[in-house]
Amino acid sequence: MKLKETIKLGSQRLRRPSSSAAEAVPATEREIDLQHEDDEALVRRTQKGDSSAFDVLVGRYKERLYATVYHMTSNHEDANDLVQDTFIKAYKSLRSFRGQSSFYTWVYRIAVNRTINFIKRRKNHNQYSLDDMDSSIQTDPDLVELMSHVTPRREVALTELQQKLNEALQHLSEPHRAVVAMHDIQGMTHADIARVMKCSEGTVRSRLFYARQQLQGLLSDYL
Amino acid sequence: MDCKKAQPLFDDLSQNRLDSETAVRVRQHLTDCTDCRVLAQRAARLQRLLALKCYERPAPEYLDDFLSEFHSRLMAETQRAAWWECALGRIDSLLVVGTMRVWRYGVASAMGVAVVVGVMWMSVCQTNAPDSAADQTAAANPSLVLADSQATPSPSHSAPDALVAPVPASLQAVPGDDQPTTAGSVDLVQTTARADYTAPRYVLDTVAVTPASYEVSSFHF
Lengths: 223, 221
Description:
heterodimer, A: 1% strand, B: 221 residues, two-stranded antiparallel ribbon
């Protein structure tokens, strides 16, 4: 199916009024069915022209991609734009996706590469627009331990800590920042990062090592 | 185990990704080596600090409209696409459909061969064109061709090559021939002029052998 027709179908499905219960029920059931399908099946459906299958993929990965891109840019508007761009690029290129890697790795690679290019372009004008800290951080044992050493004024220190962490990350080069965001913040394995960044695990380890050395210098007050 | 081998494994040790034997050896090294122990402790603290960043999250409703935004942007981008992008997309989708997938490489190869043949044909035509013009000139006036083939090349000369006559050996000038020479200056003149010396030539107004002018501009003293 041609791209324009596919998009039209997708938006018609989204704009469909919910007043008609008879129509809404099959659509919902179908969406529930799609939710249970794995990535490979959803990709095949999208390649055949079923754009609602791609919507499920977007819903499945938007938050994870947003988090990675946000930790690289430290700006939530930029992160939102870049993730949107990533999914648009993925949708347009899905026809050429041959399933040699998983959809997750593939879309992650697009996001990381686009973010690295974006950071290189806007190198000299960093603007922070930070997300709020989740309130559950207050009970995190690591934070409690850290704050007991650093300062008793926890709330002030928390904002300051957030600012310092983001500033320190902005000092790293783009590939180093990507590796730190994926490994130390999101907990991805070396092997997954190597697949996303199309490099060896050794390269990932060495980037992580040098990035941490730099960060230790920048965040020495908190270590 | 030495420090160089142990340090890259600290990360794996903290996340229990090492086999038991290697883990024991790394732990033993950490017990023995103070520098590595400090390094590992700092690295672990840094990791715990960075892990706090996962609490930075957008407001819960921030990504609610993500899908509808995605659809509207996708629609806008498709409408903005140039006509040739749409055409290429349609050709591509046509080639992808069913059995045409097999032929897409064949079509691409045939187009590539056609381009190469076209370029070769054009280059052959271009190399033949000047030769044929020269052949026609030679057929019209053979004496000009004779003069051209024997003439001394002169890049500074603006007259057509066909009108330059060969210079007899007896008439070839030595630098400084038409200048009065003094005893001490001969060597100096000859050595300085030899570097950019070009043979003087008679420029003919017609094909006749009579010299029309004597070109001395190439001498520099």
